[in-house]
Write a structure and sequence with these properties.
With 260 residues, the protein is an alpha+beta fold. The protein is built from 8 helices and 5 strands. Helix content is 61%, strand content 13%.
């Protein structure tokens, strides 16, 4: 009987190879930090490394190969691990040291991160309105880390002042491509998200209250038979004690009568 020829096992895809290489070459601290995004430019694909550090999203320039973008992502991940334990002022100084053109203060960074300032980076500031509207917004693209840090500080101040201040700062710092009509449209969508989020919070609060009430009711239902049993036993013991006292009093009265 003729046998079918052996078929060679298919080689792993390019994506799988990248995952294997990344898993082998990286430690667990940097493996999942940041991302590499693919975009189509003309007839070719280009790649961007991205990571968020201290409320600022850092984006690389377009790289022609995935490997180049992945190398940048690993460097960004190492930087975030280096800075994540620092307080706000020290974090800002570290970001300036890493991405500032002057390179001042970069001495405390590992040598392999000194080349970050030689690359081209863009920055976006996160405007966190999840507490009000359930959304995380981003600012327009900024070309320098000093601009990004200044805007982030304004966002932090606005957040302390409340919804109206946050809404105003986002209207000011949203994408340059926005026209006056589109700005109003975006703000209307944001206001709608706020109303929706408020309604969701209200429904969740009512649902939580209902669950708590049902739980209390269930505990009472289970507690009533135990209370009834306890009361019945207590009543029986009292009756028994009363009968015992009555019998004792009767015996004492009969004894006194016989002695008389």
């Amino acid at each position: 009987v003729a046998r079918h020829p052996k078929v060679a096992r298919s080689t792993p895809t390019r994506r799988k190879e990248k995952k294997v290489q990344r898993g082998v070459s990286e430690d667990s601290g940097t493996r999942r930090c940041g991302a590499v995004s693919a975009i189509r430019v003309g007839c070719s694909m280009q790649y961007i490394a991205r990571i968020t550090i201290g409320g600022i999203t850092v984006n690389s320039r377009c790289a022609k190969s995935w490997e180049d973008a992945e190398h940048l992502r690993r460097m960004l991940a190492k930087l975030r691990l280096q800075l994540q334990e620092l307080q706000e002022d020290a974090l800002d100084a570290g970001l300036c040291a890493a991405f500032g053109k002057s390179g001042e203060g970069a001495s405390f960074l590992p040598p392999e991160l000194h080349t970050l300032k030689d690359q081209e980076w863009s920055f976006r500031v996160l405007v966190d309105v999840r507490a009000w509207a359930g959304r995380l917004l981003t600012s327009k693209t900024l070309s320098s880390i000093t601009e990004a840090l200044s805007l982030r500080q304004r966002v932090i101040t606005a957040r302390r002042c409340g919804w109206d201040a946050l809404r105003a700062i986002w209207a000011e710092c949203m994408s340059h491509r926005a026209t006056p009509s589109s700005i109003q449209g975006r703000l209307a969508v944001l206001d709608g998200s706020r109303s929706t989020a408020a309604e969701v919070r209200k429904r969740r609060a009512v649902a939580l209250q209902d669950r708590q009430f049902r739980g209390l009711e269930s505990r009472i239902v289970h507690l009533v038979p135990r209370l009834e049993k306890h009361l019945a036993l207590d009543t029986a013991e009292r009756r028994k004690a009363q009968m015992t006292r009555s019998d004792g009093e009767a015996e004492n009265g009969q004894g006194r009568f016989l002695m008389a």
